[in-house]
C-alpha cells in the first residue's frame, strides 16, 4: 500500500470550502478527510464547529458509488478538557477510520490569536503543553497527535529557547504519546508554511530517544493544491533519523507502510 495524506479538510470543516472531487483527482487509491470538531470555537465566535456526520457519510457513499477510490472517514478533535464529555458524546457510535488529536485553544482564545503575542512565552508554553498532555491522557480513541507546535506558531523562538522552555513538558508528553500508541505527525503547515522545521529537528530525535516509533505525514490541507504538501521533503527528513515506515489507520487499526 502507498502512503496517503491523513490530514485533509473539506467543506465539512468550518474553515474550508474545498470539495471531495478536487482531492479525488489527486488521490492514488484511497482518500481520507479529517474534519474539524471544535466546541465553543474562538475562531467562530465560540459557536460549536461540528461536522454533520450524517451529511458527511451520505456524501462519501454517493462519491464511492461513482468512483473506484475508497473514501475513509476521519475527524480532527480540538481538545479542551472541559469540553470532553460533549466531544465524547459526539463521537459515540460514529464510525471514523482515523481520529486526529489537536489542541487549538484553551477555552478563552485560539493559540493563533493575537493575544498570544502579549503573553510570557514560558507561561504560554507551559499552558499549551500541559493541555496537550491532558488531551493525550484523556482521549483514548485517538490515533495521531497533530501539529505539536500549534501553540507556539505565533512566537519567534530559537530552537535553543524552545528546548529550554518546552523540554520539561515535552518529555512527559512524548512518554504519554508512546504509552498510548499515538503516532507523531509531521505537519506540512508547521514544517513549511510556519517555518518550524528546526523545532521538528529537535523534537523528532527527542521522541525517538524515548522510544517513539510511530510517525505520520499530514498536509493539513484546506485546498486541493496543498494535498501531500512537502511529503517528499518530510519523508527524507524522517529517514535521516532512521525512520523507514509510516503509520496509517483504517477502522482505527494501525498498518505500517514503507516510505
From TrEMBL:
The keyword Amino-acid biosynthesis applies. It catalyses: L-histidinol phosphate + H2O = L-histidinol + phosphate. Gene3D superfamilies: Metal-dependent hydrolases (3.20.20.140). GO terms for molecular function: histidinol-phosphatase activity. Pathway: Amino-acid biosynthesis; L-histidine biosynthesis; L-histidine from 5-phospho-alpha-D-ribose 1-diphosphate: step 8/9. GO terms for cellular component: cytoplasm. The keyword Transport does not apply. Its EC number is 3.1.3.15. Keywords: Amino-acid biosynthesis, Histidine biosynthesis, Hydrolase. One of its GO terms (biological process) is L-histidine biosynthetic process. InterPro entries: Histidinol_P_phosphatase_HisJ, Pol/histidinol_Pase-like. PANTHER family: HISTIDINOL PHOSPHATASE-RELATED, HISTIDINOL-PHOSPHATASE. Belongs to the PHP hydrolase family. HisK subfamily. This is Histidinol-phosphatase.
Amino acid at each position: 500500500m502507498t502512503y496517503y495524506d491523513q490530514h485533509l479538510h473539506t467543506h465539512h470543516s468550518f474553515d474550508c470550502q474545498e470539495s471531495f472531487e478536487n482531492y479525488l483527482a489527486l488521490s492514488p487509491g484511497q482518500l481520507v478527510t479529517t474534519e474539524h470538531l471544535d466546541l465553543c470555537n474562538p475562531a467562530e465566535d465560540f459557536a460549536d464547529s461540528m461536522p454533520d456526520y450524517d451529511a458527511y457519510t451520505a456524501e462519501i457513499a454517493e462519491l464511492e458509488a461513482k468512483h473506484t477510490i475508497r473514501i475513509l472517514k476521519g475527524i480532527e478533535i480540538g481538545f479542551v478538557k472541559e469540553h470532553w464529555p460533549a466531544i465524547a458524546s459526539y463521537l459515540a457510535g460514529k464510525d471514523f477510520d482515523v481520529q486526529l488529536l489537536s489542541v487549538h485553544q484553551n477555552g478563552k482564545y485560539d493559540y493563533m490569536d493575537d493575544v498570544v503575542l502579549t503573553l510570557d512565552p514560558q507561561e504560554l508554553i507551559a499552558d499549551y503543553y500541559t493541555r496537550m498532555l491532558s488531551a493525550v491522557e484523556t482521549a483514548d480513541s485517538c490515533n495521531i497527535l497533530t501539529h505539536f507546535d500549534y501553540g507556539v506558531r505565533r512566537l519567534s523562538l530559537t530552537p535553543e529557547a524552545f528546548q529550554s522552555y518546552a523540554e520539561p513538558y515535552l518529555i512527559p508528553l512524548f512518554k504519554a504519546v508512546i504509552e498510548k500508541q499515538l503516532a507523531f505527525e509531521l505537519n506540512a503547515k508547521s514544517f513549511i508554511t510556519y517555518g518550524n522545521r528546526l523545532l521538528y529537528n529537535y523534537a523528532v530525535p527527542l521522541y525517538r530517544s524515548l522510544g517513539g516509533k510511530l510517525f505520520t505525514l499530514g498536509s493539513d490541507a484546506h485546498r486541493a493544491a496543498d494535498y501531500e504538501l512537502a511529503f517528499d521533503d518530510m519523508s527524507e527528513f524522517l529517514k535521516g533519523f532512521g525512520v523507514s515506515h509510516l503509520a496509517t489507520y483504517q477502522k482505527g487499526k494501525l498498518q505500517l507502510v514503507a516510505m
